[in-house]
Amino acid sequence: MMSKKLVFHLIYRFDVGGLETVLVSLINVLPTENFQHVIVSLTDSSLQMQSRIHVENVELIQLHKLSGNDFGIYFKLWKLFRQYRPQIVHSYNIATLEYQFIAFLANVPFRIHAEHGRDIFDLDGSNKKYQILRRIINPFVHYWIPVSKELKQWLKNTVKIPIEKVQLIYNGINLELYKPVNRSSKEFFTIATVGRAVPVKNQLTLIKAVELLVKQNSEIQHQLRLVIVGDGELFSMLQTYILENKLENNIELLGSRDDVSAILQTVDLFVLPSLAEGIALTLLEAMATALPVIATNVGGNPELIIDGKNGSLIPIQDEKRLAAVILNYLNSPDLCKKHGVAARKTVEEQFSLSVMTNKYLALYQSSKNI
Fold it and tell me: pTM of the predicted model, to two decimals?
């Protein structure tokens, strides 16, 4: 009988977010007879995220990394790799990349690194320091996993990773969890956005767009509602802005929630105003719920949205343009339905959880050929 492969998932923080949701979905779906998993968080984790793991015997290790250079983490990881002897180390995003070298020194047989998107410090991937870091670590990584075509081309053309080492795997979602509902006409037109309250998610532009609409038209003021799901470092700033500008009757901050699928079924439009994205899980979730979607024209968003067909693409940080597109959807119920139906079809065809899982399964199993 073949023994299970032990997979170490190396992540900066195991907290509520799209990347972490993809990780948990993967663990929950991969065959338990073939794989066992350990999640290593360089910093800490949330109980909310831990509760989403439905597979038994998944160990979570928190290293409580100090901010800045914490050289003790290298030794801690070395000891873990030597103690557990994982067959696979799967690291996620730039904050974990350098530790692939430690995995190499510890003789971990198969090492892969996933690029799920960029953060505020390197929105367009032009940061030379991080490009050089990737090139330095590249010899110690067997495969790079971008989640969008844009990231794949960037790894190939800008970072200069050999294309044979780059495997595109789109994020996928559970289509049984995110289902369309019949949206009958109701008193309010409700917009939702879901994401961490951090600079790259840029919720403030959406708040300002709603502010423009409600302050220029008293009728819209009584029609339009915005709900913002997510917690993070900018939560109090967003809350202060809403209160100072007397928007609390139109905008509600819900914080971190475990019932996003239910929330999406109660709204009419989804907006993702991010400054950068890979393949946004929250965007896929909204599309699977047959919502019309508005997203900024960045990263992998154009790979999901065909402007004018299954949603709308807008420039970043342009609240006036965003307000105009929101108003167009508010005044066009038929357009909302048309784009929502097309959005659901897009996810069904290309971004299901089963498609994603099968690709990771094939990649993990290929480790025996290394």
Answer: 0.89
